[in-house]
Amino acid sequence: MILLVAATDRELCGHDGLVCGVGPVEAAAATARTLALRSFDAVLHVGLAGARGVPVGSLVVGTEAVYCDLSAEWPVVERVAADPGLVAAVAAALAAESQTPIHTSATVGGARKSPRDRVSHAPLVEAMEGFGVLRAAELAGVPAVEVRAISNELGEPDRAKWNLTGALEALEDALPTLVTAVSA
Questions:
Q1: What is the CA angle 9-13-15, rounded to 5?
Q2: DSSP state letters, the chain
Q3: Distances 108 to 50, 117, 119, 127, 131 between C-alpha atoms, Å
Q4: What predicted TM-score, i.e. pTM, was given to this entire model?
Q5: What percent of the chain is predicted at pLDDT more than 70?
Q6: Mean pLDDT throughout 54-60?
């Protein structure tokens, strides 16, 4: 059995799944609770994201979730790898879509403002829940993967220019393929 997780009902695109809420804390709490109450074979986390260097409307398979809001003087968990088998299966099912780390920040544009990214011009994908969902799955011993549809260019302040409708359509079109790939 697959647990399909998204921050909002709109991102589930009519599929049954867990609406985990917006932000890393809500996502972690809701996912951990669900995984504690029922047994699942895998977690498929989906939703929208902003990106730099990745075309709006494309899908991205997360190789890991990087938590950008955490900073401490001692070692902390700030990365969680997606399950390599699920990444490979989803990437193969989506054919030409990209694979990259997805950065988690509770603030829109937070990954861009992170000290790690200040000098980088590499592609960057940012969302708000991935680290929470993948970390909860990791602690529960359930393989997980995150897939995001790109709705906007990072740093675009005019939200009227964000293509939420197109990104949701791309996600909706891909969901049956994603669920099948994760279930295999």
A1: 85
A2: -EEEEESSHHHHTT---EE--SSHHHHHHHHHHHHHHS--SEEEEEEEEEEESS-TT-EEEEEEEEE-S---SS----EEEPPHHHHHHHHHHHTT-EEEEEEE-SSTTTTTTSGGGSS--S-EEEESSHHHHHHHHHHHT--EEEEEEEEEETT---GGGS-HHHHHHHHHHHHHHHHHHHH-
A3: 8, 14, 19, 8, 15
A4: 0.90
A5: 88
A6: 94
pLDDT surpassing 80 at residue 77: no
Structure tokens at 8: 């909002």
Measured in whole angstroms, the distance separating CA 151 from the mean position of its chain's CA atoms is 13
Write b or e for each residue in 137-157: b if 16 or more Cβ atoms lie within 10 A of its Cβ, otherwise e: bbebebbbbbbbbbbbbbeee
CA 24 to chain centre: 11
pLDDT surpassing 90 at residue 112: no
- Average confidence (pLDDT) over 33-60: 96
**According to the model, what pLDDT value does residue 68 have?**
81
The first and second tokens of residue 174, run together, are: 């891909």
